## 1
Amino acid sequence: MSGPDAGGSGLVAGGPEPYGDGTRVVRAGLPEPEPGQPFLPGPVLASIFALDPDTGPVPGRDSYGRPDSPTRRLLEAAIGELEGGECLTFATGMAAISTLLFTVLRPGDTVVLPSDGYYLTRAFAQQELAPRGVTIRLAPTAGPYPSFAGVRLVLLESPSNPGLEVCDIAQVAAAAHEHGTLVAVDNTTATPLGQTPLALGADVVVASGTKALTGHSDLLLGYVAARDPQLVERMRSWRTGTGGIPGNVDAWLAHRSLATLDLRLARQSANAAAVAALLAGHPAVRSVRWPGLPTDPSTVVAARQMRRLPGVVTFELAGRAAVAEFFRASRLVTAATSFGGLHTTGDRRAQWGDDVPEGLVRLSCGIETTADLVADIARALDAAVRVPES
Ligand SMILES: *Cc1c(COP(=O)(O)O)cnc(C)c1O
């Protein structure tokens, strides 16, 4: 995928395009290399910056850490490049999502949210937006979607967490735009290397950077990305007013982690392919969802709109006792929530109140050696199949 002159002129921003993913992430958001300077400048740890005593604060010059952070701006440049829009980062994914909901929705508005997406988005909207006069409609990720007449905002989540359902983003965006409905996509599971919703017709991307984007299970992060400068400015103003910014050390760690995103996703996705095939043929498993399985209902749409498949596989065992035995028998799958990290983890989602079967596990494949992971999970499934459910 390298441009014709990629070898000669150096891999600088504005150079020959398009570059491959590995090239894009390793350079994303970095300043031009300067002799004697690090590639990624260290975190600027400042809550205040010196003011010019004559002029006082001047637009474009850093003065206070809530609106201003050089470290955060570099990370935002990087994610913005990858998503194809202007990016604002937040302390967590929920800070980003709540910013979108609160800046766009007014009393009397209607919002369509996924019925099967991240549970807290739905719960938060029901708790905080409904009492403020916002009507909430739920639609399953795979559809059917209601008429968008009178709908202010539709939030899609594809692939959805935890069910890994996929929706045709371009198709839903076109239907929504006919009615002037704003289209947002939660891009957490795919990451911008997996799909770029803005290029598929969405107006806004929201995401948790806590998961695969940063991938080391060591920080929380959220972001929004959009092309409409007015929408970005409203969200920036909300962020400045509510204060949900990421810290500078976390922003720097996130930026450092981005450089390996292509490598991490490649191994996670390869591991997920091998594990999904194993799960699909094992008698302990009642059902398995992964958009890359040829038998999966989402495979056609996923192949069309996604550039790579996630490292997350969702499957169902007989029940709670079988899942407990699965974890006991495995050495490489650690019970933990969240996903997208270096280490393989599994999460029984019903324990968090998700409206899913007791035996449903969201398995997040890490970057371990594929054969080791497959052998370990096969052993754990063999143990789980022998457990009687009470
Ligand atoms: C985790 C997650 C969020 C929330 O992100 P936090 O960083 O935990 O606040 C939102 N959407 C999806 C799809 C998620 O998986």
Note: The domain at 262-384 is CATH 3.90.1150.10 (Aspartate Aminotransferase, domain 1).
## 2
Amino acid sequence: CRIHIMAGRVPEGADRAALAAGMEAPFVDNLRHAAGVLAQEPMVGLLEPINTRITDPRYFLSTPQQAAAMLEQVGQPNLKLQLDIFHLQIMDGNLTRNLETYFPLIGHIQIAQVPARQEPDTPGEVNFPYLFQQLESLGYTGYVGCEYTPRGATAEGLGWLREYWQSRGLEPNGSIL
Ligand SMILES: *[C@@H]1O[C@H](CO)[C@@H](O)[C@H](O)[C@H]1NC(C)=O
Ligand SMILES: *[C@@H]1O[C@H](CO)[C@@H](O)[C@H](O)[C@H]1NC(C)=O
């Protein structure tokens, strides 16, 4: 079981840079506490950087660099990074190098095309077939969450997954596909 632990927002009108240290310390304390609670079960807590340019301008945790620094301070193996490619592309790009660098911290991946936040095979900035290959080469075996707004019906929008399986010689056999 994986739980997204959210970071909260910088107060309205506040100067993010001035508040950063003051907000980080209690969050790290809370994460330490959460790690202890989660450790009583086979549960993993996830930190997700969310972009502050479009989606959530006051969200405190916005880059994998920031998440990695906090995960390092807590130092518990049951806290991981939830890397949403949509947010990462908007905040920092540099997807190949960031994936490689933060791969050991990743506990969950989410995807959506940029900027429309739709299926990965819709027009946009991110080359998902390439990124899926990168994830395979890095040895990723976890889930990939589809955090997007489908253009039409959900099953219809999963054409990208059918194509991905076919490219790997796999037979889709689930009831939706
Ligand atoms: C790209 O990401 C890597 C790893 O996070 C970092 O070392 C490098 O400085 C980044 N490059 C640029 C141009 O930001
Ligand atoms: C789908 O394929 C997997 C692996 O071959 C198999 O274990 C599973 O029973 C299949 N599911 C259905 C619904 O046919």
Note: DSSP finds six helices and five strands in the chain.
